[in-house]
């Protein structure tokens, strides 16, 4: 039996370009040529071409097929490895579809990771808060993320100190900044009492506590205005002092 390049490509259900490429990369042997110079393919070429196409359709790369060689008709090890890879891919795609369905159904922001997106459904966040949450999601570890997400899911209690911070102008004077920072201490300590995990948010940060804190400070400085960032810095100092003085904490 003798087929031309076009004929064998059609028989194998592939393209001329694919057949020529397989020749170029050494997967398919070059056939003998007729007296007129045209290639003459035989049954062995068709069988090999069909095998290559089947493996490509299954998901093997050409380099993987080359490693298998011609002799192994049933590359069990490679097939099992591909099966595991496909299973992982299917699981990832299923998770992506579930997340996509949630985003479409609830109209939540796409920049929020799943752990925080659910919390944003019933309590829409301001742009600054959402940006900060997004940064936090990239530096916190599993425990810190869970603690922060749990806080977001709880009803927010109105507090004058929080309102004062949100309305603080960039040119607020020294006294106002100090007063707002001091007013926030009691509010944050109470949050810590109700949510113990908040006081050690960065304890399991993948890149370490120091890196997490540095990133958070940088985010504060960029997201919030000058006075608000300054207040948050003051608040950190005041909270550290409060933690060294147990008597200053709210009673359990």
TrEMBL record:
Signal peptide: none annotated. Pfam families: MerR_1. Residues 2-71 form the HTH merR-type domain. PROSITE patterns: HTH_MERR_2. InterPro entries: MerR-type_HTH_dom, MerR_fam. It comes from the Bacteria. This is MerR family transcriptional regulator. It comes from Streptomyces niphimycinicus.
């Amino acid at each position: 039996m003798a087929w031309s390049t076009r004929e064998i490509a059609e028989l194998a259900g592939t393209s001329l370009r694919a057949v020529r490429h397989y020749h170029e990369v050494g997967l398919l042997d070059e056939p003998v040529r007729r007296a007129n110079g045209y290639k003459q393919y035989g049954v062995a070429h068709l069988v090999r071409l069909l095998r290559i196409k089947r493996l490509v359709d299954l998901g093997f790369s050409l380099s993987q097929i080359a490693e298998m060689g011609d002799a192994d008709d049933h590359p069990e090890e490679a097939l099992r490895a591909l099966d595991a890879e496909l299973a992982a891919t299917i699981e990832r795609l299923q998770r992506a579809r579930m997340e996509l369905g949630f985003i479409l159904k609830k109209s939540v922001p796409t920049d929020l990771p799943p752990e925080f997106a659910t919390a944003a459904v019933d309590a829409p966040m301001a742009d600054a808060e959402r940006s900060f949450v997004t940064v936090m999601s990239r530096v916190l570890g599993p425990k810190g993320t869970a603690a922060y997400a749990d806080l977001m899911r709880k009803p927010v209690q109105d507090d004058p100190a929080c309102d004062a911070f949100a309305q603080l102008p960039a040119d607020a004077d020294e006294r106002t900044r100090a007063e707002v920072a001091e007013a926030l201490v009691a509010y944050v300590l109470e949050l810590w009492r109700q949510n113990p995990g908040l006081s050690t948010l960065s304890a399991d940060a993948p890149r370490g506590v120091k890196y997490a804190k540095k990133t958070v400070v940088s985010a504060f400085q960029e997201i919030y205005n000058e006075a608000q960032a300054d207040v948050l810095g003051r608040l950190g100092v005041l909270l550290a002092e409060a933690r060294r003085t147990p008597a200053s904490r709210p009673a359990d």
